[in-house]
Amino acid sequence: MRGIVPLLKDSDVPLRINAIAPGWTLTGMVPKEAIEAAGGRTQTPDVAARSVAVLMADTARQGELIYSEQGKFIELESALLKVIADLGIDDDPVLQRIYAMAASQQKSGVGTIPGSSS
After folding, report:
1. Which residue range forms the structural domain that includes residue 33?
2. Is residue 94 part of a domain?
């Protein structure tokens, strides 16, 4: 999401990108008994659906990843990025340079991104 959200900000495309990462949800893919025997907790699909509703209802939400378990919601993307920033790691300048190289390549028609196939 980090790669595409900044591109949408500068475009006229009316699109928001968010994601959910639900905990063990009873969908029939893995039996409830197996999850519980392994020490996991299960939730019903309506819990995951509420995560989607939270993201859809608030139009200010963009580029968020919500983890849901047992009716509790945690926004992971910004929390993870804060931890990474606190460690002094910042990939954003590299991402910005790649965007600039791609824009330059698109304008000139000349392959300027190292390792690109065009």
Report:
1. 5-108
2. yes
